[in-house]
Sequence to fold (161 residues):
Amino acid sequence: MRTFSKITALVAIAGLAGCATYEPIVTSQGALPQGGTYRILSQDAPPHVTNLVAEQLTTLGFEHSDRPAYLVQIGASERPATVGALVPDPKEPQWLRRPWLGSRQIVHGVTVSLTESESGREIYRSAAAVRSGEADAQERLEPLIATMLAPRTRQDPPAVR
Fold:
């Protein structure tokens, strides 16, 4: 009976440890400018996501303007954590997005793109995803967006498309 209790406790601890990890995935391309003026073009992103991006840009020394140096586009998505995407390869299947089976959580995705107003050239793009419950979604998005728009000393490798 005692062995059964120990096994049950170990399984419960392992299960809780798996539930407690909300490791965000962030990839970036290009170099984030050292401030300047910007205008957000996105109309489809939820207002709380748009506000978090604007707050982070202000923290980094950017100013909102009607005649901006940079145009900002924001995309946001949500999917059940139990949904994944598998690359069909007969030799070795690979997960693009691994599902978290048995989870009632949501994966929140955010993409932010900065484009030069004059040239139309995209100079920075960052995409991120984090898993959370309904109650803590806002709490998880704030540090995620801060990480996405943090100045980096080196550029991430190009994403595979």
In short: The longest strand covers residues 70-80. Residues 4-21 have pLDDT under 50 and may be disordered. DSSP finds three helices and eight strands in the chain. Residues 58 and 64 are 8 Å apart (CA to CA).
